[in-house]
Design a protein that fits this description.
Strand order of the largest sheet: 1-2-3
Number of helices: 1
Length: 88
């Protein structure tokens, strides 16, 4: 059994939809045909080969916008600053 975890600190994702009825489903504005985003990507998986000539590979990929991560980190930093400031 092999486990792996990949972290891509800067990656881009482009969603394209030519059909106007599918644009909302893929997060594309109705007056545009594509949407691009810059963010962070995680990919993990398991390669499991217990039986001869039979292999199971399972992967999971997650993508998040970098701005969401920055907002979370900034809010955590502000709270840590306030906690340390109030202790003094």
């Amino acid at each position: 059994m092999i486990f792996f975890l990949l972290i891509f600190t800067s990656c881009g994702r482009i969603s394209t939809s030519v059909d106007p009825t599918l644009r909302a489903k893929y997060g594309v504005e109705l007056d545009q045909t594509s949407r691009s985003a810059f963010g962070l990507s995680f990919k993990g998986g398991v390669n499991y080969a217990r039986i001869e000539n039979f292999k199971v590979i399972s992967t999971l990929g997650l993508f998040t916008l970098i701005i969401k991560i920055l907002v979370i980190l900034m809010s955590i930093g502000i709270w840590l600053f306030l906690i340390n400031f109030l202790k003094c």
